[in-house]
Amino acid sequence: xxxxxxxxxxxxxxxxxxxxxxxxxxxxxxxxxxxxxxxxxxxxxxxxx
Length: 49
Description:
The chain has one domain. The protein is globular, with a radius of gyration of 10 Å. The protein is built from three helices and no strands. It is mainly α and about 50 residues long.
């Protein structure tokens, strides 16, 4: 389990896992479009749980 998975599993206790994934993506300081964030959430919900 990498750092991202650990972060998402802990933050998922407070909110939806897809929102936790968005938070993780935004922590790297890069700018993402809404579409890019949506794709990362869709990828997470389709395979990682």
